[in-house]
Recover the amino acids of this structure.
């Protein structure tokens, strides 16, 4: 099964949301991507529609922004 | 197992997020509450920390605001 991708930047809101999503969906069904550390994946996230982190890209291509930790622009800076 | 509660107000963003969350978590694990129709449950949502809809209250009491459809204030109006 195709995984969801959880994009985050290590912020407190990100980490809290990560715990919730893993608890709800299961770690084996999510790829966790820290775009603050893997900057080359920022454009991938943007192209998918991610505007802020934390965000979950679902297997069918929709983005759920989960609360608000930081904008993509702030992560780039 | 305790269910999550998905609060929404029937808005397009709400309905899209509802589909995603049901697909990810399973309908049997979520109670769906339309606070535009069940106004008496607005205070329950607010007390749980819901500031806008759609939002998911997880079994351990955390709120995940999923994208942004409408503020609670707008739903009350």
């Amino acid at each position: 099964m195709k995984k969801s991708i959880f994009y985050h930047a290590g912020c407190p809101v990100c980490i809290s949301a990560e715990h919730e999503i893993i608890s709800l969906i299961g770690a084996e069904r999510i790829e966790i991507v820290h775009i603050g550390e893997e900057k080359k994946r920022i454009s991938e996230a943007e192209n998918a529609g991610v505007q802020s982190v934390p965000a979950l890209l679902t297997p069918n291509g929709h983005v759920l922004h989960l609360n608000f930790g930081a904008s993509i622009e702030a992560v780039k800076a």
About this structure: Chain A has a mean pLDDT of 96. The longest strand of chain A covers residues 63-71.
